[in-house]
Amino acid sequence: MSCPIAPACSAPASARRHERRNPASGLSHSHYAALGRDDADAPSPDFASLSLAEIARLAEANRLPPVESWAPEHCGDSEMRIARDGCWFHQGSPIGRLAMVKLFATILRREPDGRFVLVTPVEKLDIAVEDAPFVAVEMKAEGEGAAMKLAFRLNTDELIAADADHALRFEDHPEGPRPYLHVRRGLEALVSRPVYYELAQIALANGSSPPGVWSNGAFFALEAQQ
Length: 226
Prior knowledge:
By secondary structure, this protein is an alpha+beta fold. Helices cover 19% and strands 31% of the residues.
């Protein structure tokens, strides 16, 4: 599905005319070079067969572009939206190609004022996010009690090991508790309902007060923060 975004606005027009653009995304090939890759296609990890140690190594080795160091001019709106269920849309149509979603996810940034933007070295575009930009769709647990380790697979296939830097937090909502996992630099993943039920079962087995779960030496209470 074609999902173009607005052309770069900070580069000279003469330079932009000579850019070759990826027809599926609207990103120029120089943007891909800046991101350190030629395309977004990569095999998805077989989460079910990985050990927690292997997941931790993959998460550590995951190269992400240095979006926090890029300071392009603001170019406008991408006409893109991330729904609460993690589905990405462009101009109201879902982006069906996971590889493209995975690429866009690597250039997603949260601004100090709370806005979400897609950013490259030459452009910055607003993107609407209904809840959290990611969804944690699968979890693995190893160990027991305070020695437990938890790892999550996001809907973008990114792997996150919960720890002090990737904390779980919970909010109260009319439909029930809503858990979130910190991914990076203010970006969070909404923990899916089936995964939340797994967390609740672990918390009950722990017998802690308040109920909660441990992961990599950090304790996360399954109650809303005051």
